[in-house]
Amino acid sequence: MSSSTDELIRRGGDVAVDIHGLRVVRGRRVAIDDLSVRVARGTITGLLGPSGCGKTTLMRCIVGTQLVAAGRVAVLGRPAGSADLRHRVGYVTQDPTIYDDLRVIDNVRYFAALYGTGAAAADEAIVDVGLTDHRTALCANLSGGQRTRVSLACALVSHPELLVLDEPTVGLDPVLRVDLWVKFDELARRGTTLIVSSHVMDEADHCGDLLLMRDGRLLAHTTPAQLRKDSGCQSLEEAFLSVIRDSTAARPAPAG
Amino acid sequence: MILLVPSLVITLLYFMFQDAPRPPGAPSPFNTACLVMLGVFPLIVMFLITSITMQRERVSGTLERILTTPLRRFDLLGAYGTAFSIAAAAQATLACLVSFWLLGLHTEGSPALVFTIAIINAVLGVGLGLLCSAFARTEFQAVQFMPLVVAPQLLLCGIIVPREVLPDWLQWLSNAMPASYALEALQQVAAHPEPTFIATRDICVVIGFAVAALALAAATLRRRTP
């Protein structure tokens, strides 16, 4: 399937993430098998698939915290995990990784200090995620959605060129989800590349590009419009299920 | 808690020995026991606090996350070491003040030297704690490293049975443990007005152990994990 990324890159657009022949083994399981993909700069790419399909592992490869068995991952033109990428790539993990015994503002200031961006950037990041009213609240007393946003603020504080978000909207109410997507759109317009994983298909419409994953493999690199056209389904949920059915039918039955 | 507990325990020790019979001319048993406490407390407390804090960083994912930032590993260890050493210094200051001033602890050597050894023991505790946190999966396991790592050192360092009368193989073990040197240094300070060669050597050995533990701890901080 063709995708907007391919067109963009063909037209001479910049590549933010270039993955070739990636293979990751976790324990005895092959978590990612021979995956190749390119993501253009300034786009929002949705990483979709059932839970356990390798979304988080792929994101960890891009951030450079995952040991890789084979293949190469280039991010912003450098090997993933390079020292100079640490200023330029932001990562928000699935569970909010913040310090519960610190206040919101202290958490964000701590990350601002680690990135060397200062207290003003911390205040700005808190405004960006809409937590101004909870600046001085202890993180342990916040709701799940508020903790997610603190975690996001800790990444925004470095003004990253590439922002990797692992299921940032899980457990959020619809109003907040819409707010966050508005925020993501705004970041993309300003030139930030976003890779956002989700297993809620209705969020896929916010993404310019879609990566559909299953069992550690990339099923499709497409766009919401293309996916609808190819599958003949109006709802992306059904479209995704049809892609999975096709891929299962196409693959030889596993031995044993 | 960190500040007050050691001072309270040392005060308890004082009253324990208050009415204990003592042979004429021998140093008071409180003196010996109090010195041991001043050396041992920073080691135990800092070991526990560091191993549990670091374990929490590992489990909560904050360690992995801060390792994706420009932070250097030695900066992280240095920050841990400094923060906890300052806590240890405050603790040791209070404990030394109470011991020397209120409870009449007497050493031939300088109280400043006792204080210095206490701080070095605290740094050793931080190093061992950071290292052990890598091998614990839960906070519960981290706590259990305390008896495993600290108890044998206390048993073999000469507090209970003098090192010279230990069986050979236990003497070897004792020689390989940093607490033995820390205690010997404290005993030297208690007995001699000037810093002795043995005391200096022992302090250097303990510093060596602390640096080695911190370096090994740095090796357990991996940016990439399976």
What does this structure look like?
The complex is a heterodimer of chains A (256) and B (226). By secondary structure, chain A is an alpha/beta fold. Chain A contains 8 helices and 10 strands. Chain A has helices at residues 4-10, 55-63, 104-115, 119-128, 144-156, 174-189, 224-231, 236-250; strands at 15-26, 29-40, 44-48, 70-75, 78-79, 89-92, 162-165, 193-198, 209-214, 217-222. In chain A, the strands form 2 sheets. Chain A has a 6-stranded mixed β-sheet, with helices on both faces. Chain A has a 4-stranded antiparallel β-sheet with strand order 2-1-4-5. In chain A, helix 3 (104-115) packs across helix 4. The radius of gyration of chain A is 18 Å and the shape is globular. Chain B is an all-alpha fold. In chain B, helix 2 packs antiparallel against helix 8, helix 5 runs parallel beside helix 9 (197-220) and helix 8 runs antiparallel to helix 9. The longest helix of chain B is centred in the first third of the chain and has 32 residues, at 29-60. The A-B interface holds A 26-27, 63-67, 81, 83, 86-87, 89, 91, 93, 95, 97-99, 111, 114-116, 154, 158 and B 60-62, 64-71, 223-226.
Q: Give the DSSP E fraction of chain A (strand runs of 2 or more residues).
A: 15-25%
- Indicate the overall shape of chain B: globular
Mean pLDDT of chain B: 87
Average pLDDT level of chain A: 87
The global form of chain A is: globular
Q: Which strand-content bin applies to the residues of chain B?
A: under 5%
Helix-strand makeup class of chain B: mainly alpha
Pair of chains with the largest interface and how many residues each contributes: A-B, 24 and 15 residues
- What is the structural class of chain A? alpha/beta
CATH topological fold name of the domain at 4-81 and 199-250 in chain A: Rossmann fold
What would CATH call the class of the domain at 4-81 and 199-250 in chain A?
Alpha Beta
Strand count, sense and barrel status of the largest sheet of chain A are: 6 strands, mixed
Strand segment tally of chain B:
0
